[in-house]
Amino acid sequence: MTTSGQKRSEIERLQAVVDVHGGDRERWPAADRLALGALVAHDDEAAAIVREALALDRLLNVAPALSPEREARLAQRIVAAAVKEGRWGGETSSAQSSVAVPQRQHIEAAEVGATATGLKLPPRARVHLWGRRATQGPWQSAVMMVLALGVGVLAGATLLAGDAANSTFTLADASEDVVLQQLVAGDETLDAIAEDLL
Amino acid sequence: MKPNAPGKTEAAGGAMQEPSDAVLVQRMSGGDADAFALLVNRHVGAVSAVARRLLGDDGEAEDVTQEALLKLWRLGAGLSIDGPGVRPWLRRVVSNMAIDRIRSRRRVDVTDDVPEVAEAPRQMQALEGNEVSVRVDVALQALPERQRLALTLFHFEGLSQMEVAAAMNVSDEAVESLLARARRSLKTALAGEWRDLLASDERV
């Protein structure tokens, strides 16, 4: 017959076990499963402790996880990123993979760039223009040169215009005709430089 | 003769078997993205669940899951696969990444002296919407990170106490203490919920 002291000790042990392992007896250490089985089966207080622990286990099981749809999209993105990245600095042969590769971010980034520059990109360039494996074709070099040229012309025009303005001030005491001639000469110089560049 | 389904091999009895993680990793090491896709589909759910429960945020969970699986892709043959496959390794990687994120979050909070406003909408949602799962999530996120990790690995991932200890690089006794403190805190935080659950069981 179990004395009250023994029972208290077993209840305390049971409480310690469920605090660590929860209410599922399959998760308890084998020794405790054997030692406490009879107590749980025949003692109301022990049975209540286990019921409470099982209720908490069930609550924990409703903790949110990613939805299946989100999980599927994530899986697709991971595989796409791996295929795009290649391996060890090299590239994965497209012949080795039948996996769909959406590469959404890079396509979007390239499209934004193309819209900003008013360019119509060929399909392959749309994917790789801003990607890690981007290769520059002749048309891309041409675009870059034209853009650089434009910037150069603008910068030059600003400097020359500044020079012309300065010369106007230094010639403040000269006649109006002289000043006008200088300004006209400056405009012609600008035009000549722009023509040369273009 | 019908061709095999992608990613499946024919067993001696003619039944189609999923290739093991070790086989897929070997194929993946040769640059086979289909093998990697099979590994991703096999493990993304479990790995993202660990990340989600540790981080409490879908977007961050997706980020670390992606990082962990891409690490697998990059390592390839450099990874030693034994009986349980890549799952324990992935779990460890994703747990470490999640904990790093939690720690860096805390550093930002301290240095910028920003109050934890991010939790407020979810708490409000829990109070107003009476969503049990949100309440559970809030309670889980309120646990200290090591307690949450121990509970995630033991309860949600089904690891044994010894496996949790190995994964966390702590002693069995430490795991016991972490689990006990975690469950006691949750029992207090979710007292209304588990009592309601018991009451509804009794009514049935």
Task: Record keyword descriptors for this entry.
heterodimer; A: 198 residues; 4 domains; 8 helices; 71% helix; 0% strand; disordered C terminus; B: 204 residues; mainly alpha; Rna Polymerase Sigma Factor, Chain: A; Arc Repressor Mutant, subunit A; 10 helices; 2 strands; 73% helix; elongated
Walk me through this protein's architecture.
The complex is a heterodimer of chains A (198) and B (204). Chain A is mainly α and 198 residues long. Chain A folds into four domains: 4-60, no CATH class; 67-102, no CATH class; 103-135, no CATH class; 138-197. Helix content of chain A is 71%, strand content 0%. Chain A is built from eight helices and no strands. Chain A has helices at residues 4-21, 30-42, 44-60, 68-85, 104-117, 123-128, 138-170, 176-197. In chain A, helix 7 (138-170) packs antiparallel against helix 8 (176-197). The longest helix of chain A has 33 residues, at 138-170. Chain A is rod-shaped. Chain A starts with a helix and ends with a helix. In chain A, 17% of the residues are buried. Mean pLDDT of chain A is 65; it is low at 89-97, 99-137 and 162-198. Chain B has 204 residues and is mainly alpha-helical. Chain B folds into two domains: 8-114, RNA polymerase sigma factor, region 2, helix turn helix motif (Rna Polymerase Sigma Factor, Chain: A, Orthogonal Bundle), CATH 1.10.1740.10; 116-204, Winged helix-like DNA-binding domain superfamily/Winged helix DNA-binding domain (Arc Repressor Mutant, subunit A, Orthogonal Bundle). In chain B, strands 1-2 form a two-stranded antiparallel sheet. In chain B, helix 2 (33-55) crosses helix 4 (87-112), helix 3 (58-75) crosses helix 4 and helix 7 crosses helix 9 (172-189). The N and C termini of chain B lie far apart (55 Å).
